[in-house]
Amino acid sequence: MTRDTGAAERLLADLPPAPAVWCSGLRKRYRRQVAVDDVSFTVGRGEIVGLLGPNGAGKTTVIKILLGLIHPNAGDVLLLGRPARDPRARARVGYLPELFRYQPWLTAAEVLALHVRLAGVTVPVAERRECLDMVGLADRADDRVGGFSKGMQQRLGLAVALVARPELVVLDEPTSALDPIGRADVRDLLLSLRSRRVAVLLNSHLIGEVERVCDRVVILDRGRVAASGTLAELLGQRELRLRLDGVGADAEARLAATGRLTRAGDEFIVELPADQDAAPGDGAVPKLVADLVALGVRVHAVEPGRISLERRLLNILRADSGEDRR
Ligand SMILES: Nc1ncnc2c1ncn2[C@@H]1O[C@H](COP(=O)(O)OP(=O)(O)OP(=O)(O)O)[C@@H](O)[C@H]1O
After folding, report:
1. 49-83 residue pLDDT tens
2. Residues 45 and 145 in one domain
3. In a domain, 7, yes or no
């Protein structure tokens, strides 16, 4: 019996670690409102995954289900290989809520000490101070939180999420109260977490921020996963930005035949189809320019580039709402 248990443990130890987050078929309904509908995704160890979507898409509800703060009507969650409600899993998860508020009568150092005790772990004082240092609050450790600005409270929230040496950190709008330098600091912090194989699930409306740090994104729309993938998969599509004048109907048709066309004044953006991704300049661009010139167009600028996450997100959400109308 003992030998069997030992063998089973060795077998488990040899397996790769379970993903930081695994969820499948999550569904949550509030009266007639379906807030989350059949949501499934994973966050691997050391991976930074961005949760994106418009207001009311269900991002915070998903996060609360993952953390066991809300009961889903259907679906399963495993955090670090254990059920979400298992205290052993929750002790290894750091969380910064969207609406944060800490005990105003405690000092920053005392708030951290409290959270370490709640997590049931031991973290030496020096390491707790380091954590405050990491979020730029080293010199405010002994000040009462009641006197902190909103941005300083959010920084403290980040320290709370990180202090108990989590293996997974869930951050709901972590930079909403931060100035640009604070945002850059958080970016560095996220990258340092990744280098230590800590997984991060990040909910942010700041798409540029998500684009800079995330390995993968999950896009929610009206409770459902509208798209998900690595940034390379989602942004693989390339585009051409052209500044043109004298564009007649024939030239516009030529542009539209090259890819999805949008126009703002004299600027034209052509999104190249996926099969031209690898080498958009290989023959296709000179040929397009030659054809445009032959059609009487004056070409002022041609700039190949990659579609931004913001525009990709808007395209996905527009396509999603178009499908629903049909
Ligand atoms: N406690 C609740 N009672 C009733 N409806 C709720 C509750 N919480 C959320 N909802 C509804 O569920 C849907 C998803 O809300 P949720 O807060 O998850 O969205 P979100 O994507 O986080 O939005 P935002 O970007 O605005 O923070 C919304 O329609 C919201 O009104």
Report:
1. 999 998 899 999 999 999 988 999 999 999 999 98
2. yes
3. no
Q: What CATH number did the domain enclosing 286 receive?
A: 3.30.70
Nearest CA to ligand 1 atom 10: 35
How far apart (Å, rounded) are the C-alpha atoms in residues 81 and 203?
Answer: 22
Residue whose CA lies nearest to ligand 1 atom number 25: 55
Q: Which of the listed residues 231, 250, 271 is the one where a domain comes to its end?
A: 231
Give the residue-averaged pLDDT of 233-248: 85
Q: What is the pLDDT of residue 325?
A: 46
Distance 144 CA to ligand 1 centre (A): 32
Helix, strand, coil % over all residues of the chain, rounded to 5: 40, 30, 30
Last residue of a domain, one of 198, 231, 264: 231
- CA 280, chain centre distance (Å): 29
- What sign has the CA pseudo-torsion 152, 153, 154, 156? positive
pTM for the whole thing?
0.78
Question: Residue 116 corresponds to which amino acid?
Answer: V
Degrees, nearest 5: CA angle 67-70-71: 110
Beta bridge partners of 260: 271
Q: Are residues 221 and 277 in the same domain?
A: no
Which two structure tokens, joined as six digits, stand for 27?
Answer: 């569904």
Q: What is the DSSP string of 41-63?
A: EEE-TT-EEEEE-STTSSHHHHH
> In this structure, what is the dihedral angle of CA atoms 67, 72, 75, 79, given to the nearest 10 degrees?
10
Whole domain around residue 219: which residue ranges?
A: 15-231
| Pocket mutation for ligand 1, best pick of 30, 39, 173, 201 (most atoms within 8 Å of C-beta) | 30
On whether both 177 and 259 belong to a single domain, the answer is: no
Ligand 1, pocket residues at CB < 6 Å: 30, 33, 35, 53, 55-61
